[in-house]
Amino acid sequence: xxxxxxxxxxxxxxxxxxxxxxxxxxxxxxxxxxxxxxxxxxxxxxxxxxxxxxxxxxxxxxxxxxxxxxxxxxxxxxxxxxxxxxxxxxxxxxxxxxxxxxxxxxxxxxxxxxxxxxxxxxxxxxxxxxxxxxxxxxxxxxxxxxxxxxxxxxxxxxxxxxxxxxxxxxxxxxxxxxxxxxxxxxxxxxxxxxxxxxx
Amino acid sequence: xxxxxxxxxxxxxxxxxxxxxxxxxxxxxxxxxxxxxxxxxxxxxxxxxxxxxxxxxxxxxxxxxxxxxxxxxxxxxxxxxxxxxxxxxxxxxxxxxxxxxxxxxxxxxxxxxxxxxxxxxxxxxxxxxxxxxxxxxxxxxxxxxxxxxxxxxxxxxxxxxxxxxxxxxxxxxxxxxxxxxxxxxxxxxxxxxxxxxxxxxxxxxxxxxxxxxxxxxxxxxxxxxxxxxxxxxxxxxxxxxxxxxxxxxxxxxxxxxxxxxxxxxxxxxxxxxxxxxxxxxxxx
Lengths: 199, 284
Description:
Chain A is mainly α. Chain A has one domain. Chain A has helices spanning 3-23, 29-52, 61-81, 86-105, 112-137, 146-166, 174-198. In chain A, helix 4 packs antiparallel against helix 5 (112-137). Chain B has two domains: 1-136, Tetracycline Repressor, domain 2 (Orthogonal Bundle), CATH 1.10.357.140; 163-284, Four Helix Bundle (Hemerythrin (Met), subunit A). By secondary structure, chain B is mainly α. Chain A binds chain B through residues 17, 20-22, 24-25, 32, 36, 39-40, 43-44, 47-48, 51-52, 55, 59, and chain B through 234-237, 239-240, 242-244, 246-247, 250-251, 254, 262-263, 266, 269-270, 273.
């Protein structure tokens, strides 16, 4: 891993640490927990990438951790901004996570694991991408809050690149993906931090 | 001037600067956990100087005594003492010249603080290095106790007394040290074997060593987390500490159930980063 990649990942980790320690203060208990898990996974992932290199992405736990990130971010957003759907989405998030976890632990040979993973990521990703932008457009949040949606789009792009790479149908070459990943993670994290701080 | 710089360049590796720096950071964090924001800068400066001298001095004395072991280990045979770049008597004089004034300055600043700094030096040099290191793998417990002394000393200096939080912080360092040392003794297993130093991996095997690392990581994380809450660290920083602790536990678990050289050394590096981060968070 190049020095530049290490610096980009370190900055990503520092931004995630800031967001956990300072950026989510004052929210309700459940969004704080959900955001802490999401940004916490990003922080630990950045540190592990620096220490262990890109090989860490081959670990089976990556699929589970990368599912928890969008689920927790979307849960936090729904809990804060869509009060009537809080319990429903909490149930969906928990069920989705447990289902993905089960498909990773059980020796299933059909397409269910992939379909389930795509569905869970799709629902959570759309919420993170669209909800902040729609709230900003509707005037229910400041315009800068739409940056959270930009962060959602970037994390979705990163997740898609990695998922297709793992599925053996990469959009970009392995080397290119690993080259752009640290920069993508930093941009995503910066968008989240700015969106939450200014929105 | 050139001669002096050349000497300093030779002496610096004798202090194991990263290890000394990490232990120094625990001492400063212990003080700041009791006295934050720092208003008495002369106290803080004195604390830093006395701790640095005592820790670096005891490290040099260890290296002086273990020079025969260092010379047969691949990892350490190039060290200034083992390779003959620094004379034995010169290193011994340097170790004593740093240790005694370091403890003396500490005692002059506060007798209780001086006593704890002296205890750390005594446990490290006499109990750990001279007495137990070549006899039993359990010597690391005493190494751990001496490693916990700087943070206890720093807090005791800040408060003027030894309290439960200080002991909890010292326990955190004590239980963090196996994570740090045992991962190292697995990585350099052949080196330690060649030097005939009893280690956990050579005495109990790798599986037991990994389980020990996991258990001690859990206790270290719980101790440091409890101390942070009792000190009254802001919740945001407690959250961050919990996340970093989760990372430590994740790596320790991975090292136990999916052992590999990469994960083992990753845990070693992460453990150092974890301790430094925890000290920063306790100091804010």
